[in-house]
């Protein structure tokens, strides 16, 4: 069986009607006698494609592990994926199509603006969503049936600036994508600087397409900052590192967020990425101390998956575990509302050393943030 287990669809209404007839009489949308079908809208074919693939691999590897043991109450867990190219309007169209398909819920969405654009539909239809590859505060809306499986960006940025200023790096430059993702993190950095006694030496927006990297580097050089926070995609982080190095020498004390895949940065920048600091919202995938990481390793080993031992894959793996726990709590007749209520009843629940906290008015999930660094050969030092 292909471990990705994707159903590559752009389902027509006729196909959706056939699926509805196949569903057991009286069963919830997406629930069939032998399977539960979820949807995923995400931008594999975008600048964030690498991290999104890693994230999804973690989800599907755990689902395949559960399916091999008989699924949840005899039902296999299936994920239909639709490509959205990191474009919010495509995300909205995909969610509308998934509502026609009658999926049970959505999993592992990607993109701050994408999730925000889809939230009205998600709320209107009470469509449960578990996992969103964004920590932006605007999408952490507890009235929506969206359950987060990562800490918020504000938590990460605060930790970055606190750490930097504590070791004397108070003059801070900020580079951010000129979109919602970048802007919310730039605002958080300004707030954190005020809180911890830092000074913002430069706020440098840049194009999502990355054609303006030389101009970005020139502004960084003029700012003479002691540390630089890079709120952008892995490819542009790598381009900034390499361009700055070729023109002015190493970029001083760069930082990246957890969503900015260290694996992708190293693949593109090589040893120039050594020393880049990174906030992580999951335990180290190679850890033998944290039970969640050990479980992740053992599940991938059993599946014969030797690549992609990444932080993003751990996040997808945790997301899958949350979904399975919620479904098990529903018993043999899951419905969307029952699933939502069972997740809200989690309280503070441990998943192998990482705590997920859900309540009726709290869907923000974990609050775990650690500081790590890219070392020699791309190895993560935590």
UniProtKB/TrEMBL annotation:
<dbReference type="InterPro" id="IPR028082">
    <property type="entry name" value="Peripla_BP_I"/>
</dbReference>
<feature type="domain" description="Leucine-binding protein">
    <location>
        <begin position="55"/>
        <end position="375"/>
    </location>
</feature>
<comment type="similarity">
    <text>Belongs to the leucine-binding protein family.</text>
</comment>
<dbReference type="Pfam" id="PF13458">
    <property type="entry name" value="Peripla_BP_6"/>
</dbReference>
<keyword id="KW-0732">Signal</keyword>
<feature type="signal peptide">
    <location>
        <begin position="1"/>
        <end position="24"/>
    </location>
</feature>
<protein>
    <recommendedName>
        <fullName>Leucine-binding protein domain-containing protein</fullName>
    </recommendedName>
</protein>
<dbReference type="InterPro" id="IPR028081">
    <property type="entry name" value="Leu-bd"/>
</dbReference>
């Amino acid at each position: 069986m292909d471990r990705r287990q994707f159903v590559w669809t752009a389902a027509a209404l006729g196909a959706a009607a056939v699926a509805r007839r196949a569903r057991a009489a009286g069963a919830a949308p997406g629930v069939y006698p032998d399977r539960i079908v979820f949807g995923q809208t995400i931008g594999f074919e975008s600048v964030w494609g690498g991290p999104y693939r890693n994230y999804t691999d973690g989800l599907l590897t755990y689902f395949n592990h559960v399916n091999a043991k008989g699924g949840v109450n005899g039902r296999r867990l299936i994920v239909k994926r639709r490509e959205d190219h990191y474009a919010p309007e495509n995300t909205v169209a995909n969610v509308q199509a998934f509502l026609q398909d009658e999926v049970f819920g959505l999993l592992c969405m990607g993109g701050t603006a994408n999730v925000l654009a889809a939230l009205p539909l998600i709320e209107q239809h009470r469509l449960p969503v578990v996992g969103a590859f964004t920590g932006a505060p605007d999408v952490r809306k507890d009235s929506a049936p969206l359950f987060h499986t990562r800490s918020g960006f504000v938590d990460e940025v605060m930790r970055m600036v606190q750490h930097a200023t504590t070791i004397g790096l108070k003059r801070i430059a900020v580079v951010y994508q000129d979109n919602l993702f970048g802007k919310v993190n730039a605002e958080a950095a300004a707030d954190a600087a005020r809180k911890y006694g830092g000074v913002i030496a430069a706020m440098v927006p840049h194009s999502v397409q990355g054609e303006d990297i030389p101009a970005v580097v020139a502004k960084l050089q003029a700012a003479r900052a002691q540390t630089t926070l890079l709120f952008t995609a892995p490819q542009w982080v790598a381009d900034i590192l390499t361009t700055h190095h070729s023109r002015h020498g190493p970029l001083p004390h760069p930082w990246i967020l957890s969503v900015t895949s260290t694996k992708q940065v190293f693949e593109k920048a090589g040893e120039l990425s050594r020393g880049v600091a990174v906030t992580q919202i999951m335990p180290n995938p190679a850890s033998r101390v944290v039970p969640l990481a050990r479980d992740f390793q053992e599940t991938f080993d059993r599946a014969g998956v030797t690549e992609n031992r990444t932080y993003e894959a751990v996040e997808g793996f945790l997301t899958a575990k949350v979904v399975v726990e919620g479904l098990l709590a529903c018993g043999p007749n899951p419905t969307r509302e029952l699933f939502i209520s069972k997740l809200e009843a989690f309280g503070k629940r441990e998943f192998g050393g990482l705590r997920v906290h859900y309540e009726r008015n709290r869907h923000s999930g974990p609050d775990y943030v650690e500081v790590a660094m890219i070392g020699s050969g791309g190895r993560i030092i935590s």
